Every structure is written in structure tokens, then in C-alpha cells.
Amino acid sequence: MSWTTICSVEALRPESGVCALVDGVQVAVFMTYDGELHALSNFDPYSEAYVLSRGIVGTRKGEPTVASPLHKQVYSLVSGRCLDDETLSVPVYGVRVGNGGLVEVSLEQRVEVGV
Ligand code: FES
């Protein structure tokens, strides 16, 4: 398992995301209101644009979500499923706070969602 350091946890703001390049993959890292971290692909498959890190963090039925800033499709931060269009999903990656309060992402801990 390999982890890539992204930034310090203090650099993240609750309810917002940052984009990081991990081994050539654009990853959107989010902190929710309660301080939980989530990492998804930055690619919005609906708009076909790398924009999810700029999305609006929220919840739907208690599930943390991000809404694409372009066409507002809502994706689960937990499963990567699009909650507005069941044919769409985005990869979910491993994210943790490692030594020294640094946020780390692992592409290997990727969750594949069946659609
Ligand atoms: S996030 Fe790039 S256009 Fe809105």
C-alpha cells in the first residue's frame, strides 16, 4: 500500500475540497463538516470535466455528498455513486491523516462501485 502526502490537515476547510495530483491522477479531497476526510476522482463523468474538487459539499439522507459545480449532479463521498443518475459513479480512494497531521491519499485503496 503506498500513500502520497497531499497537504497538512490544517490546509483543508470543512465543507470544501482541494485537488491533488497523485501519480498522474487528479484526486479531489474533501473535509466534511464533522471533520471526516473523503477522496474521489476529480473527474465529473456527467460534464466530462475535472471539477469535483470545486463542488458543493452537503448531505443527502445523512450521506455526505458533493454536487458538481457544473451541472449539479450529486455524488456520494462514501461510495462514489451518483445519486441523481444511477448510470454514473466516480472512483473513491483511500485517505487518512498520517504522521505530523499530513493528509495522505492511496490510489490502491480504491473502491470500485458496480453500476
Ligand atoms: S470549477 Fe471550474 S468552472 Fe467551476
TrEMBL record:
Residues 4-104 form the Rieske domain. Signal peptide: none annotated. Its EC number is 1.7.1.4. It is an enzyme of class 1 (oxidoreductase). InterPro entries: NirD, Rieske-like_NirD, Rieske_2Fe-2S, Rieske_2Fe-2S_sf. Pfam families: Rieske_2. This is Nitrite reductase [NAD(P)H] small subunit. PANTHER family: NITRITE REDUCTASE (NADH) SMALL SUBUNIT, PTHR40562. Keywords: 2Fe-2S, Iron, Iron-sulfur, Metal-binding, Nitrate assimilation, Oxidoreductase. PROSITE patterns: NIRD, RIESKE. GO terms for molecular function: 2 iron, 2 sulfur cluster binding; metal ion binding; monooxygenase activity; nitrite reductase [NAD(P)H] activity; oxidoreductase activity, acting on paired donors, with incorporation or reduction of molecular oxygen. One of its GO terms (biological process) is nitrate assimilation.
